[in-house]
Amino acid sequence: MRLLVLLAGLTGLPLLAADADRPKLIDAHVHYNGDPAFLAKFLAKLESVNGQALLIAAPKDIPAIKEFTAAHPGRFHGLGQMSLDHPDALKLVDEFHNAGFRGLGELTGPEYPFDDRRYWPIYERAEKYGMILLFHTGIVNRRNFAEPMNVSSDRMRVSTLDLIARRFPKLTLIAAHLGNPDYEWAAEIGRWNPNLLFDVSGSTLYKKQADLTFFKSIFWWDNVVSPHTPKTNVSAFEKLVFGSDVFGGEIAEFDRELDLYRKLLAACGVAPASQENIFSGTLAKVLARQK
Ligand SMILES: [Zn+2]
Q1: How many domains does the chain have?
Q2: Residue 68 structural domain
Q3: How far is the CA of 161 from the centre of ligand 1 (A)?
Q4: What angle do CA 32, 98, 289 make, to 5 degrees?
Q5: How far is the CA of 109 from the centre of ligand 1 (A)?
Q6: pTM over 0.85
């Protein structure tokens, strides 16, 4: 890097200056808890790692997020938290878009499977805006055991994203939690859908911490010649992007996830260039394309 800076100085190449500004980390999955003190703390965290984040925020927080992102340009990108079953869903999508939000999420707790046709107009509108959609996939927590809830993990199976990815090719989908526990399904539909990425936040890397090389059998296809597999030199692990799932102001989760991701990628021998894409490069490209 020092050599590059030196060369840049000698040749005056602006490209390399831009390279130094590139984020080292983009966190695809941060929940805003509505407390402005959280924003200030998380900003300091991002600045310390030259990072950016997709920040999940409710409609009521639109003014606060707009103001904060304007004050700290390029650090946060809004994701609009909404229910797919909201009676005014399309209006909400417009509202988030008009406020400069780059996508929607975390989409969770739908009354019908994610790929149900009733939701297609929402996906269509989001596609028109070139949005990123962050879906909760797989097993979901149950917070209040006494309260009846119309929630099922089965409606959020990662395989329901296959149809959405194919039907709406200009959407970028991020399946949070790698479909826990449907990892095989996640990777296989990811193999065929370039617009589908994953984060592996949540309990998965805790569950598998004694068996991290397991993921080599999930992301198996680079350098493997097989019928009908598109030829690629790109590591299959590049289907992953970094996501911390910081929730309820619990910023410590950011460092824990970062550590777990690093252990996973080291255990699976993922090359440094691919790791760069996983931690920031892939999402940087998506965000640049959207503009
Ligand atoms: Zn989730």
Answers
A1: 1
A2: 21-139+151-290
A3: 15
A4: 85
A5: 10
A6: yes
